[in-house]
Design a protein that fits this description.
about 150 residues; mainly alpha
């Protein structure tokens, strides 16, 4: 029973079972959940959510790994954590959340250096680390834009 709960978390509460684009579906679910939460991008709550999400995500995503698939498509909890990280310090408005979503998905898909290297870390750590880094990179870029333009 515990193993099933851990796997369900690793699959982003089932969003990883989407028949098409499970990572995008997981990212979309994460941004909606964040919007509904009572804290903002500069709150301790978001930092705790990301930190705890990462810590539980390592074993949760690792539980979905098989000998033939070291980064299964159904493991999308990493998208949740990365998406939340992309919202750090940004205004909690739909335009900024949309920008965070797009920016995170682009970085997660193209995986610029050093994100690709992080993916090579063992097990769930590799699954989680590259998406957290993509989220942090997205947040840095978007916060520069926010400070420069607004």
């Amino acid at each position: 029973m515990l193993r099933r709960a851990v796997q369900l978390l690793g699959m982003g509460f089932g969003t990883g079972l989407a028949p098409a684009a499970p990572a995008t579906v997981g990212s979309l679910a994460a941004v909606i959940i964040y919007f509904l939460l009572p804290f903002s991008g500069d709150s301790l709550g978001l930092f705790l959510l990301i930190g705890l999400g990462f810590l539980v995500g390592v074993p949760a995503t690792a539980s979905l790994i098989t000998s033939g698939d070291t980064d299964p498509h159904r493991a999308v909890w990493d998208e949740f954590v990365g998406m939340w990280a992309s919202c750090l310090l940004l205004p909690k408005t739909w335009p900024w959340l949309l920008a965070a979503f797009v920016c995170f998905r682009v970085f997660d898909i193209i995986k610029p250096w050093p994100l690709r290297r992080l993916e090579r870390l063992p097990g769930g750590l590799g699954i989680m680390a590259d998406d957290l880094a993509a989220g942090i990179l997205s947040a840095a870029l978007l916060n520069m834009a926010h400070l420069t333009v607004f």
